[in-house]
Amino acid sequence: MRANFRMQRLFVDAPLSAGAPVEADSAQFNYLANVLRMGDGAEILLFNGRDGEWRVDLSFPTRKRILLTPREQTRPQPDAPDLHYLFAPLKVGRMDYLVQKAVEMGAGTLVPVMTQHVQGKIHSTDKLKANVIEAAEQCGILSIPAVEEPVKLPDLLEGWDRSRRIIYCDEGHDGQNPLPVLSAIRETKLALLVGPEGGFSEAERATLRSLDFVTAIPLGPRILRADTAAVAALAVIQAAVGDWR
Ligand code: SAH
Questions:
Q1: Distance from residue 131's CA to the centre of ligand 1 (Å)
Q2: Distance from the CA of 183 to the CA of which of 20, 55, 197, 245 falls in 20 to 30 A?
Q3: Tens digits of residue pLDDT in 64-85
């Protein structure tokens, strides 16, 4: 079921069930009361990543508090998307974009991967997690993708669950069309790996190409920026072997 885009949607980390009120935190209070100027009886949607989506109404027990009372479940909790998205961190700004787009495109787990030419840094995954929640609130996604701690590419490959195939965007691929390669994939557990702005090193490309749980794909005749490559790859993967079918 697609989301209702006319109502505000907020994430809360509390159980949701009919009639059991949840208190808005201070950021949510500020947003609802001061930015949106909502009053007693106004309605929004709440989700917590576990109990589906609920229509709730606002009440103000005091001038500084808002209670959100679930009245009706508007969508049940869907299965969490299974696609893992492995990405080399980009510089601030582009990385926010990349995380938002990955969530919209149906990534289920986000894993920052440190490669040889990576330029972005991750001081803490809190910022990424906040971005994930904001993207889910905006595009109506009800399961919050997990964000893992950064891992170095060799360590990631070393510890990899080989039943999950890594689809790796290879800017040095001889071909142009990813679709024949993708349609030959038989595994249902998949991960997408996109390199940093500086690309993969020759040594990294050689390693990736030597592993039997990794499939290299091209993305057309032009070199794309990493954030564009991610959206393009997620679209072709979802269409060929994912949840757009
Ligand atoms: N600086 C590199 C390009 C890096 S692009 C160079 O000039 O070669 C960043 C990442 O996006 C790449 O590591 C790759 O994963 C992906 N990518 C970009 N264009 C691509 C293409 N045409 N085919 C496959 N992957 C691509």
A1: 24
A2: 197
A3: 999 999 999 999 999 999 999 9
Domains observed in the chain: 9-75 (2.40.240.20), 83-240 (3.40.1280.10)
CA distance 77 to 31: 25
- The pTM assigned to this predicted structure is 0.93
- Pairwise CA distance, residues 135 & 102, whole Å: 9
For ligand 1, atom 17, which residue shows the shortest CA distance?
Answer: 171
Q: How far is the CA of 132 from the centre of ligand 1 (A)?
A: 24
Mean predicted lDDT score pLDDT of the chain:
96
**195 CA → ligand 1 middle, Å:** 7
Distances (CA, A) of 174 to 171, 199, 220, 221: 9, 16, 10, 10
Residues with CB under 6 A from ligand 1: 169-171, 173, 194-195, 197-200, 218-220, 222-224, 226, 229
Instruction: Tell me which residue has its CA closest to atom 2 in ligand 1.
Output: 199
Nearest CA to 174 among 203, 217, 208?
A: 217
- C-alpha 227 to ligand 1 mean position (Å): 10
Which are the contacts of 168, defined by CB distance < 8 A and separation ≥ 6?
192, 193, 208, 214, 215, 216, 217
- pLDDT tens-digit map of 167-193: 999 999 999 999 999 999 999 999 999
Beta bridge partners of 165: 190
Helix (H, G, I), strand (E, B) or coil at 116: coil
| Backbone Cα Rg of the chain | 20
Helices 126-139, 94-104: inter-axial angle, 10-degree rounding: 50
Q: What is the distance between the alpha carbons of residues 101 and 242, in angstroms, rounded to a whole number?
A: 16
